[in-house]
Amino acid sequence: MTLLTLTGLSVGYGAVEALHGVDLDVAAGTVTGVLGANGAGKTSLLMGIMGATPRRSGSIRFDGVELGHAPTGRIVEAGIALCPQNRRLFPSMSIEDNLLLGATLAPAKVARERLEAAYQRTPWFAERRRESAGRLSGGQQQLVAIARALMSEPRLLMLDEPSSGLSPVAVQEVRALLERVAAAGLTVLLVEQNTHLVQHLCSSVYVLADGRVVGHDTVQGLVENDLLSDAYLGG
Ligand code: ATP
Question: What's the CA gap between 13 and 54, in Å, rounded?
Answer without folding.
Answer: 7
